[in-house]
Design goal:
The protein is an alpha+beta fold. It contains 15 helices and 11 strands. The chain has helices spanning about 15-20, 75-80, 105-120, 125-150, 155-170, 175-185, 190-210, 220-230, 255-270, 275-285, 305-310, 370-385, 390-395, 420-425, 455-485, and strands at about 90-95, 100, 235-245, 295-300, 325, 330-340, 350-360, 405-410, 435-440, 440-455, 490. The chain has a 4-stranded antiparallel β-sheet. Strands 8-7-10-9 form a 4-stranded antiparallel β-sheet. Strand 5 and strand 6 (about 330-340) form a beta hairpin. Helix 4 packs across helix 7 and helix 8 (about 220-230) packs across helix 15.
Length: about 500
């Protein structure tokens, strides 16, 4: 429960920034699907030519009818009887496990990506390369959605409505104004909602499969703080762009050689003047490929050590050589470097809250109404003194803190999502809240005690622990997404 963050809202300040981050879908013309270049070379016609080179004979099941004299009006009637052969409006492009991605889906997403990349002034690669990149991203998304379904993770319409409302609130707009703003920027509202649904689903799945398995040791915290002390209180921030040529899990020597050759070819293109963003959009297997590979400004402590070593001797605008990681071959570009004040000793005194909670998650089995009703019943039991908070948390809470009676320990401002923090701040020590809704479900919150503390040693270690955790999560996420892609059954269809 610690370090909860509001999905989609933590760093986004404008609608445009949010759309760029998510790569949302806009309307596309239906006929646009026919312009898509297949991912693999198209096959020949499904009807093979006879070995003798002659046209096939008429099927005996449908013999030709004997010619009959045509009535006098037949000539005039012939045009009205002629029929145009039906043409398919959509077809399967890729099979992912037991589901499909259609050409129309790819066309719709491609139209949105082209529009977004143009708005960001990213040079567009050839269409066949862009389609290949886009299809790869959609394959991973579809495989993630299937995994989420298998694990019972769903994002229902009520949860999606709440997320949309939070996005509108952050942009200081009503829902009607927000919808008008989206449409004014050329975004289809229904498609935008589905993109948000996919983003929430992916985040919840990642929290289950990656975030909860990341461990930060005390020795890692010690090393981090020692390195920060050696930096003299100055924190360096880097803007790096990357191209990743992914290597499959358990790759054979031939596969490894092929991927290295591809990475070396990409590097040669960059060394001879190719645009990095355009090349990333064409070749990179990273999730940020269609944004030109730019990671944005990040503190050095939130970047992998491999990246820091790779750009250590680069000047702004220079490109690294090949860097090998567990995920594949990386090529980095140092976009910029700057120094930010990191003096934490002057941090002001802050209020800490010792808090505990009972969480009932909302899912396909438990509805929001049922979760709220259950917590209302538990609060009545607490009010009447028939049970203690710790007892009920151990019996009913869906959070990892249940084994500790729901105890979250001492939390600082910003350690929990805004909804939880607002409700917590309004409570007096010993008081229990009404059921409170957050992106995680419904909570009963109890404040145990409060104290005011300076930037204590524990707080400093907690900040270091969080920085290390975020870096490790990012590295683990890349590996996890590679595994999802490698383990999915994927079949490309080229029949138009």
């Amino acid at each position: 429960m610690r370090n909860m963050r509001t999905p989609l809202l933590a760093t986004t300040k404008t609608v445009t920034a949010l759309l760029c981050m998510l790569g949302v879908i806009s309307n596309a013309q239906a006929q646009f699907a026919t312009t898509i270049i297949p991912v693999t070379p198209p096959e020949t016609s499904a009807q093979p030519a006879p070995a003798n080179g002659k046209p096939p004979a008429a099927s005996p099941a449908a013999p030709a009818k004997a010619a009959a004299p045509a009535p006098a009006k037949a000539t005039a009637a012939a045009p009205s009887q002629a029929r145009v052969e039906p043409r398919p409006v959509d077809s399967i492009m890729v099979v992912v496990n037991n589901e499909v991605i259609t050409r129309q889906e790819v066309a719709d997403r491609l139209a949105s990506v082209v529009k977004r990349m143009s708005a960001q002034n990213v040079q567009l690669p050839p269409r066949d390369q862009l389609v290949r990149q886009l299809v790869e991203r959609m394959i991973v998304e579809r495989a993630q959605a299937q995994m989420a379904k298998e694990n019972g993770i769903v994002v229902d319409d009520a949860m999606l409505d709440r997320a949309m409302q939070r996005i509108a609130d952050q942009n200081k707009l009503s829902m009607a104004q927000f919808r008008t703003r989206l449409e004014a920027e050329g975004m289809n509202y229904a498609s935008f909602r589905e993109e948000i649904r996919r983003e929430i689903l992916s985040q919840r799945l990642r929290e289950r499969e990656v975030d909860n398995k990341v461990v930060v040791t005390e020795s890692e915290v010690d090393n981090y703080l020692a390195a920060e002390a050696n930096a003299g209180g100055q924190r360096q921030e880097l803007d790096i762009a990357q191209i990743l040529i992914r290597v499959p899990e358990n790759a054979t020597p031939d596969q490894l050689a092929q991927r290295r050759e591809r990475a070396e070819d990409v590097l040669r293109q960059l060394k001879t003047g190719a645009d990095f963003a355009k090349t990333a959009a064409a070749y990179s297997d990273a999730s940020d490929a269609l944004s030109g590979g730019d990671l944005g400004w990040r503190p050095a402590d939130r970047l992998p050590q491999l990246f820091l070593d790779g750009v250590a001797k680069l000047q702004d605008g220079q490109v690294s050589g090949l860097l090998k990681s567990g995920n594949g071959f990386h090529i980095l570009k140092l976009v910029g470097r700057r120094t930010a004040d990191g003096a934490q000793a002057a941090a002001p005194a802050v209020q800490q809250t010792h808090v505990r909670h009972i969480l009932i998650k909302v899912n396909q089995v438990v509805t929001a109404a049922e979760a709220k009703r259950k917590l209302t019943e538990l609060k009545e039991r607490l009010d009447h003194g028939s049970a203690t908070f710790e007892e009920l948390a151990k019996l009913y809470s869906n959070d990892l803190s249940a084994s500790k009676g729901g105890d979250l320990g001492w939390v600082y401002p910003g350690d929990t999502v805004p909804e939880f923090e607002r409700a917590m701040d309004q409570l007096k020590p010993g008081e229990v809240s009404q059921p409170i809704e957050t992106p995680f479900g419904y909570h009963l919150i109890q404040v145990v005690e409060r104290k005011t503390d300076d930037a204590s040693k524990e707080r400093t270690r907690q900040a270091a622990r969080q920085a290390i955790r975020e870096r490790k999560i990012e590295e683990a996420t890349e590996d996890w997404m590679r595994q999802i892609r490698d383990r999915a059954y994927v079949e490309y269809r080229n029949d138009e």
